[in-house]
Amino acid sequence: HAFPEPEKQQLWEIINDELQDILKKYSLDFSKEQMKIFNDPIHGHIALHPLLVKITDTPQFQRLRHIKQLGGTYLVYPGASHNRFEHSLGVAYLAGCQVKTLHDNQPELKITKQDFLCVQIAGLCHDLGHGPFSHVFDGLVIPKAKKIKQIRGLPDDIPEKWEHEQMSVLMFDDIVKSLKAENENVLKEHGLDDKDVTFIKELIEGAKDSVAEWKYEGRAEDKSFLYEIVANKQNGIDVDKWDYFARDCHHLGIRNSFDHQRLLKFARVCKINGRNHICFRDKEADNVYDMFRTRYTLHRQAYQHKICNIIEEMFAEALVLADCDLHEEKPEDMLKISEAIKTAEEYSKLTDEIFEQISSSTVDNLKKSRNILEKIVWRKLPKFVGEARLTEKNKSKEDLTETWKATVQKYKPTDPTVSLNAEELPVYVVDLDHGMKDKNPIESVYFYSKRNPNQASTIKEYQLSSFLPKKFNEELVRVYYRRTDDQTAEDKMEEKKKVEEAEKCFQIWCTDNFGLP
Predict the structure, then answer these.
(1) Is 164 a catalytic residue?
(2) Mean pLDDT, residues 64-83
(3) Which of 29, 263, 482, 496 is deepest in the core (most CB within 10 A)?
(4) Are 95 and 89 spatial neighbours (Cβ–Cβ below 8 Å)?
(5) Exposure string over 84-94, b if 16+ CB within 10 A, otherwise e
(6) List 43, 49, 82, 164, catalytic entry
């Protein structure tokens, strides 16, 4: 049939409109939007979509300006004064770069504008849940508070493994709520709905396991690769790390040998065991390995630095001593700390500024906390006695403390004027690895080849450099000299002698327990 001209015209217009709709859906062209440009020291000038800017302009997000990215590390590395705020912008930007690269190289993935926005928003909001001094809060304060609640028989509703990601999700919900209160259609205007909100929250937590059955609601299984961009639970390669490696190295003054921009260019989605995963070009294996090595170096030199760690322990102690929720009567003049994780509203008030709050307080109930913070300011820190690598796995901190106590009691000081007391010589255990406990992380990364870009496999043993370590994690045990009483009078000489004796004792303990120190 030949259609009459007017009908032909009409049909053509319908087809044209539908094509335009399809193009719009799968195009990542945001030229109509008023993008905002940020000048970032790490990534240069980055453009953020107006919806992301709306999210950043909320109290819940601005709070991140008051949380140090590296907590106590700033007290050892004077350049490390950067905050979670700028890291979050960087992660949003890199998440966008990753999605755009995949979209441009593999249109068959059918990545939509909505996918792009959701992944960027997840990158932006993934750290909303961090507490004072970042990992000090979820790594030290909350576990200590939980223990004390149990010991004191107080009602304990702190989740078994409380992590900041859970809080990020709560805070994100709160942001959505407050944006919707201002404008009911704030998400709709950018083509997002409730399913997308669920998707963003799933992205923040990361897709935990590679189970046979797909159990996520935000996107169907063919989009599984999107879950590996912000928080990659498969192998730890994600844009969150890419940003903090570059940013932390920049501020710490440590060289970063890992080049994330190069890895970005060589990322591709391949099907592995029936599911889409992000893979890298085979020749980039060394660069990927460099990435894990960078992580280890940063932990060894900065995050787990012996002085940073002890300062963070002291900060955590000060917070626990200031927490009103660890007392039956919840004293008014103490601070709401461990209970603040229950609501976004209370949690929003918790930032690094809590330390100023404690320091400048005058109430008796916060005296112990104040004293600890004062010690940090005056740099009256515990003295480092020694460190050894644990040779046997699974020696618990309790076991180590026991054998250490016994060694201290048996020890005959070479200087008769000195006596050692195990109470003043606490033991700390530090875990260092390449991101996957004792596994070689590169064994969980898939690579494709030039000739076969759609098939990926893990790298073969014989393709890897023989310089790689045989072991991928180590535990360090550290002992400090920490006076229990507050006698300020112990003179420098006396302290020096004590630390020297403790060192000798430590050497004996190492030889007896771990072979060589």
Answers:
(1) yes
(2) 97
(3) 263
(4) no
(5) bbbbbbbbbbb
(6) 164
